[in-house]
Amino acid sequence: MSKPYFLFVTGSFAPAPLYQNLVDLVKAQGYDIKALQLPTIGIIPGQGRDTPPATMYDDAALIAKEVEALADAGREIILVAHSYGGMPATESTKGLSVEERKKEGKKGGIVRLAYKTVLLTTPGHSAMEVLDPPAEGQPLPFQIDEKGWMSQPDPELVAATCFSDLPREEGLRWHKLMAQHSAVSFVNPLTHAGYKDVPVSYLLCEDDVVVPPEIQRREIKMIETETGSKVDVTSIKASHCPTASVPEKVVDWLLHVALL
Question: Which of 44, 47, 136, 215 is deepest in the core (most CB within 10 A)?
Fold first, then answer.
């Protein structure tokens, strides 16, 4: 049997090149992997696109198109999602699981969802609803321009939150690779519970201050309640962006998931 293909759905504000170190490490282990450039994410770091901001559903459509092409080529896909990416990845899976495709006489398909400290909820709810509101008097970590693009105006705040387990200067360097993100995508409600289609693995980041561990555990419990199946959980000491701080641990997790 051929090795599964890792299709990686990025987080918000995160162009595909932000995950290039992970892509290179996974390829070095003999696996195929691709990090997607989502329509909701600006192309140039710090900037949006010329078009109106895309929706979460636009992201899901892109993911589904990529999955279908791989599946039609006979590949089994592990759909990996980080942060905001949990929502469009989950939305995208309808009809694309390996079991659903097998019933239609088709080969390939999604064999597992692998969530890496994601935003995730039940149908009818949005990514924004997953996060706890900021405390009174606490500034919002983003601002929205007249076109509907979100940006993160405070590099120090991003370094201290998204990259909280890295030295300040290194966190600031990673921040420079980030782009703007579509505001509407955070309020688009989920319509499809993709975690019911395939088995689920979850990388729980214990030091995450963006999606705190209590939210991650709440998501895991939600999946188990909704599906009646246990989630394969791996916990690591890492911040919201373990690909930046402990990429080898992320690779170890992916290799573990590939063998399930």
Answer: 215
Mean pLDDT of the chain: 93
| 103 contact partners, CB below 8 Å, separation of at least 6 | none
Q: Hunting for tokens 């609803």 — which residue is that?
A: 129
For the chain, give every domain's residue range.
5-258
- Taking the mean position of all CA atoms in its chain, how far away is CA 215? 15
What is the SS3 assignment for 95? coil
Selecting among 208, 232, 252, 256, the annotated active-site residue is: 208
- Assigned fold of 5-258: Rossmann fold (3.40.50)
Which pTM value belongs to this model? 0.94
Cβ neighbour number for residue 198 with a 10 Å cutoff: 22
CB within 8 Å of 136: residues ≥ 6 apart: none
Concerning whether 192 is annotated as a catalytic residue, the answer is: no
For this structure, is 145 an active site residue? no
Q: Which one from 82, 175, 181, 240 is the annotated catalytic residue?
A: 240
How confident is the model at residue 6, as a pLDDT?
98
Give the CA count within 13 Å in the CB-facing half-sphere of 210: 29
Measured CA to CA, the distance from residue 103 to residue 100 in angstroms comes to 5
Question: For residue range 79-131, what is the model confidence (pLDDT) as tens digits?
Answer: 999 999 999 999 999 999 999 999 999 999 999 999 999 999 999 999 999 98
| Per-residue pLDDT tens over the stretch 8-41 | 999 999 999 999 999 999 999 999 999 999 999 9
Q: Are 116 and 231 in contact (CB under 8 A)?
A: no
The CA distance from 30 to 178, in Å, is: 28
- Within the chain, strands assigned E span 5-9, 33-35, 76-83, 109-118, 143-144, 149-151, 181-182, 200-205, 232-236
